[in-house]
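User: Can you recover a sequence for this backbone? Please restate the input before giving your answer.

Assistant: Of course. Working from this structure:
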């Protein structure tokens, strides 16, 4: 279960908001990403400069590697080791 303290800490560490994530994902991917995050599927997340790196548990044995790049204007790129393209549930759950 996601606690409000955990969400506040995550926001502080990542320093960007829900609006940016919504703008860069479909409504379905956004909701599924929230579900993945809420179930604890994001097992590792760190921000290194302008890049967010994470591991997200999906349907495969090994977690998916996710990277999201930012600049002053917002999200500039997103990459995931899963077979899907676009800003989808794994990338959304990380952000």
């Amino acid at each position: 279960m996601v606690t409000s303290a955990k969400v506040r800490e995550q926001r502080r560490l990542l320093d960007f908001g829900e609006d940016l994530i919504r703008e860069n994902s479909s409504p379905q991917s956004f909701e599924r990403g929230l579900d993945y995050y809420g179930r604890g599927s994001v097992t590792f997340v760190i921000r290194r400069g302008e890049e967010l790196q994470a591991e997200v548990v999906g349907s495969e044995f090994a977690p998916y590697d996710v990277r999201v790049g930012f600049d002053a204007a917002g999200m500039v790129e997103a990459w995931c080791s899963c077979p899907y393209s676009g800003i989808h549930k794994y990338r959304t759950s990380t952000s």
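That completes the design. The longest helix spans residues 27-38.
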